[in-house]
Amino acid sequence: xxxxxxxxxxxxxxxxxxxxxxxxxxxxxxxxxxxxxxxxxxxxxxxxxxxxxxxxxxxxxxxxxxxxxxxxxxxxxxxxxxxxxxxxxxxxxxxxxxxxxxxxxxxxxxxxxxxxxxxxxxxxxxxxxxxxxxxxxxxxxxxxxxxxxxxxxxxxxxxxxxxxxxxxxxxxxxxxxxxxxxxxxxxxxxxxxxxxxxxxxxxxxxxxxxxxxxxxxxxxxxxxxxxxxxxxxxxxxxxxxxxxxxxxxxxxxxxxxxxxxxxxxxxxxxxxxxxxxxxxxxxxxxxxxxxxxxxxxxxxxxxxxxxxxxxxxxxxxxxxxxxxxxxxxxxxxxxxxxxxxxxxxxxxxxxxxxxxxxxxxxxxxxxxxxxxxxxxxxxxxxxxxxxxxxxxxxxxxxxxxxxxxxxxxxxxxxxxxxxxxxxxx
Length: 425
Ligand code: AMP
Ligand code: GLY
Fold this sequence. Notes:
alpha+beta; Rossmann fold; Dna Ligase, domain 1; D-amino Acid Aminotransferase, Chain A, domain 1; six-stranded antiparallel beta sheet; five-stranded parallel beta sheet; globular; binds adenosine monophosphate; binds glycine
């Protein structure tokens, strides 16, 4: 079979690697893909946003199934366009992707169907938002309704910070249309984790949990990024918490979307906080997380293509997971998530046994790789313990220690190792 993966980041490289492992797959195409994917896929220079060209390519090349990585094309209705053309595609329709595209919509669904989440109100009027903030006090969280490239959330420690965020979003329209409405919600305290599932209508097949590290620097300091590293499974969940999150959050949400007449097909991602009253939702995404995908897919024992075909066919894919841990650490360009240089040559990347390398922002110049983005690579490893996986990843990453052009966090997963008494070797 021929598979088309739409996207160009680390998440999509990981998907390409997994599809390429399938004995059923004769060809993987990536559009537009990245330099690292060229080993496993044929990269096709069509942008994620050019739906018509992608549909035409899939038809002309005899693509059997298409997988959409990023949120923007999903929200722009790429799945609807593929379906209209009679093509098999795995992802939510534009209407179902609104779970990610509008925070207010997601909150309304959660309220209506009693899905655990932070208490909230939505506003288009700045004065009303400020009155609510003053009544509730700080800490409090202000969120732009629409997509804001991961920058639309302000966790305000004081009332004046929250008021400032309201002005920025509603009055100054910092995120354009995406911030013409805001959600103001209760601050939740606890460990964060991500839980993703393959979904088709009421059918929900959950994956193992993962934990992302969003802050740029060690000790969870510095600005938010797209994610500096992750590990799976998230180790320190209390007994029964996973089952609770699957039943009361993922299955309840899938069922809600069916009842709302917007059945969800694709990857449903719940960003959760494990509070003292149990897990609560901080966000939904309508796609695989990045970098969670890079550490979850290596633990999946099934053939990913078969899983998708089964889920589309309403058959149980019988997911099985390695009883191991997977860790992935991102190498970023110095300056990221602010401004950074591109085109910096990467050190020689020797493949060590068992270690995997996922490309996110690289380009090939002559026969060598150079950086081409903020997040450049992810080094990952699956092992019997999280600490063993991390030891090997960190060892391999020392090739970057002499370079001032790149950085990575040396503490990915450390707090979890400490809290579960698993000592790093
Ligand atoms: P998001 O863009 O929705 O993933 O939010 C970015 C980050 O803001 C999350 O990873 C959390 O760390 C934090 N956050 C969002 N909502 C809340 C909340 N209600 N309480 C505490 N932290 C939150
Ligand atoms: N890792 C968070 C996200 O993909 O949105």
